[in-house]
Amino acid sequence: MITAIPMKAGKISKHFKKAPQFLFLNQAGQFVGQLTNPAHPVSAKGCSSTKELMTEFQRRQVNRVVVRNIGERMLKRLLSHDLEVWQTTSSQVELASLAADENDPLLRLERQEQGRASANYMEKRSNEGCCSCSLTGKHHNGDYCGHDN
Length: 149
Prior knowledge:
It is built from five helices and seven strands, in the order E-E-E-E-H-E-H-E-H-E-H-H. The chain is an alpha/beta fold. It is globular. The C terminus is likely disordered.
């Protein structure tokens, strides 16, 4: 089992998609890799960046994700890819413990509504969306484009 943890400055990031990188741990809590977040606002390439992140999670055989905060639509995407999503309230948690089977201090997120509503979502919708798909009329079937789901 591989666990992905969004990281910023050596701590669990406050927000999943805004994390500059992800750490990957195996079930024993051992470090097995890291990834620069393609969906991070600084490096994002529109809607395709979230798809790239999900593809990378599949390639690395990620089974579960630990977050502090996550938006509703991103949570929906993770759940639709059959990933377990667990929430911690602290950035001061020992990372190895987050990969263990006993997830005592963690809350399992199982519904989109458990994520945070986007403060900018309505503004993005009123501006015809977030990326070039709004210009071409080619949407991503609601999977990865924030203005369709």
